[in-house]
Design goal:
- With 272 residues, the protein is mostly helical.
- The chain has 2 domains: 198 residues, CDP-alcohol phosphotransferase transmembrane (TM) domain (Four Helix Bundle (Hemerythrin (Met), subunit A)); 69 residues.
- 74% of the residues lie in helices and 2% in strands.
- The protein is built from 8 helices and 2 strands.
- A two-stranded antiparallel sheet has the order 1-2.
- The chain starts with a helix and ends with a helix.
Length: 272
């Protein structure tokens, strides 16, 4: 019996995607409570947050495996988006609601749902921009429009992991209003037009290398000097900061080019 190696390789990246879905599903199960009917504990929320971190890892790996094995496909794009909606939309929305937002009642439900809705919008926009009219995936760009859903979920769960490491020292269950503001801010970043680097085929100059180097070094310092659980939150904070910096620079360049075009047009009109 002859084995079609290409079909086998096609399955490989999808196994990583399905692993991401499982992590998101199990994280949601932990948030629902225990089999004896008792409410989820702080340890359950911590395990759920770690499962979403593992989902981020599997999500990062499936695309790299697909590119390495040259098995990118429209099917892969679609199942990856479905996995992202499950693991980085539904699971973190349910987790942050049960962990912190539940005391807000209907407002907490609305904020958690807003996170999920923004994740769905972000993924739909990505699918439109990532595919040609025939449905085939386009070549990877150097930037994403808006905060990627794994990064948004990572910001939320990193706070839960850090809070667990410090035994509730961070504003989480004890301050749902502040956590609500964080979730709203992250949700808006997902549907914004801020340019978030994908670090795929992107041209990088010395300023970017310097910024990334400082961010990584400071993340390691935070992990060693404060607590390893704070490293992810610090690293993602640097990623968001980079997007604001580059977004400001891009806007400045667009304004400069517009002013230059306007000046040339006025010069040509005066020359007549």
């Amino acid at each position: 019996m002859r084995v079609n190696l290409r079909k086998v390789l096609f399955i490989l990246p999808n196994l990583f995607t399905l692993s991401s879905i499982f992590c998101g599903f199990y994280a949601a199960v932990l948030c629902l409570g225990r089999s004896d009917g008792s409410l989820p504990t702080a340890d359950d929320f911590h395990r759920a947050a770690l499962l979403i971190v593992f989902a981020v890892f599997f999500d990062a790996m499936d695309g790299r495996v697909a590119r390495l094995t040259k098995t990118q496909s429209a099917f892969g794009v679609q199942i990856d988006s479905l996995a992202d909606l499950s693991s980085f939309g539904v699971a973190p929305a349910l987790l942050v609601y049960r962990w912190s937002l539940a005391p807000l009642g209907g407002l907490g439900v609305a904020v958690a749902y807003g996170f999920l809705a923004c994740a769905a919008i972000r993924l739909a926009r990505f699918n439109v921009l990532a595919m040609t009219e025939s449905g085939a995936p386009k070549k990877a760009s150097g930037f994403f429009a808006g905060l990627p859903t794994p990064g948004a979920a990572g910001i939320v769960v990193s706070l839960i992991v850090a809070d667990h490491a410090r035994a509730g020292a961070l504003p989480g269950p004890g301050n749902p209003g502040l956590m609500m503001a964080v979730v709203i801010g992250v949700s808006l970043l997902m549907v914004s037009n801020l340019p978030f680097r994908s670090f795929k085929d992107a041209k990088a100059g010395p300023p970017l290398f310097l910024f990334v180097g400082v961010t990584i070094a400071s993340t390691l310092a935070v992990g060693f000097l404060v607590h390893p659980a704070f490293a992810l939150a610090w690293l993602l904070g640097g990623y968001v900061t980079l997007a604001f910096v580059e977004g400001t620079l891009q806007l400045s360049r667009r304004v400069s080019r517009r002013d230059e075009r306007r000046a040339r047009a006025l010069a040509r009109r005066d020359a007549k």
